[in-house]
Amino acid sequence: MIKHVYISADYSEDDGDRAVVDVLKKLGSDDWHKVEFIDMAEVKSGSVSDSDDCRPCMLKKEFNDQINASSAVIIIIGDKTAQRMAGSNCQRWEKEWTECQCTPYKQNANGSKICNVYKIYPSKFNIGNINGYSYLQHEFEQAKKKNKNIIVFYNSLRQERQWLPPYMGGYEEQAQPFWVRNVCGEKVGNYDYLKRSLGYD
């Protein structure tokens, strides 16, 4: 049986945590450990991010759907994670739609557009996609609400508790360094911990 595992990470090209995601995916190619990693940075056919009018709330709804379909959620914490606020500029949750504007996903150069959410429907089973959370916080809150197996890694060789965002208080002891040294002194992914956390060992 293939495990579907959602990855939440800072995908900024210059100073994000993409290197961890790339190493994680190598586990998915292992014939014994069948894992399909859901990487929202990879735009797949049918994703709302294909649209040139993809709003932050549309992305958050897609995050919810993908997290709900996953057996576990891996959250990568880097030294910039707590400062990342992309996705948090929605004001529709506290204002009327005529008073709000937002910038479609990856369309910053084209400026903002008026909100297209005319009515908000409360969500009982998910974190509502109309909120002031960053994308990263939204993913964490949805995983927590759905009682997913949350695996937290620091993009580091050490415990970096000061990197945890305030909304992840209580995960200081659970979070583990992603990188370890092998017997040759090379920096490699902490696969042993990951496999145990996914129930393979």
Describe the structure.
The protein is of the alpha/beta class. It has a single domain (3-85, 133-197), classed as Rossmann fold (3-Layer(aba) Sandwich), CATH 3.40.50. It is built from 4 helices and 9 strands. It has helices spanning 18-28, 56-68, 135-145, 191-197; strands spanning 3-8, 35-39, 72-77, 101-102, 113-114, 149-154, 176-177, 179-181, 187-189. The strands form 3 sheets. Strands 2-1-3-6-7 form a 5-stranded parallel sheet, with helices on both faces. Strand 1, helix 1 (18-28) and strand 2 (35-39) form a beta-alpha-beta unit. The longest helix has 13 residues, at 56-68. The protein is elongated. The model has no long low-confidence stretch (mean pLDDT 88).
Write the layout of secondary structure elements.
Layout: E1 3-8, H1 18-28, E2 35-39, H2 56-68, E3 72-77, E4 101-102, E5 113-114, H3 135-145, E6 149-154, E7 176-177, E8 179-181, E9 187-189, H4 191-197
Parallel strand pairs: 1-2, 1-3, 3-6, 6-7
Antiparallel strand pairs: 4-5, 8-9
Keywords, separated by commas or semicolons:
five-stranded parallel β-sheet, 4 helices, elongated, two-stranded antiparallel sheet
Strand content: 15-25%
Gyration radius, in Å: 18 Å
Rounded average pLDDT: 88
Report the sheet with the most strands, covering strand number, pairing sense and barrel closure. 5 strands, parallel
- Poorly predicted regions: none
Helix proportion: 10-25%
Q: Look up the CATH topology.
A: Rossmann fold
Alpha-carbon distance between the two ends: 15 Å
Q: What is the CATH class name?
A: Alpha Beta
| CATH architecture name | 3-Layer(aba) Sandwich
Anisotropy-based shape: elongated
Adjacency order of strands in the biggest sheet: 2-1-3-6-7
Q: What is the N-to-C succession of helices and strands?
A: EHEHEEEHEEEEH
Q: How many strands in all?
A: 9
Number of helices: 4
Based on secondary structure, the structural category is alpha/beta
What is the domain total for the residues? 1
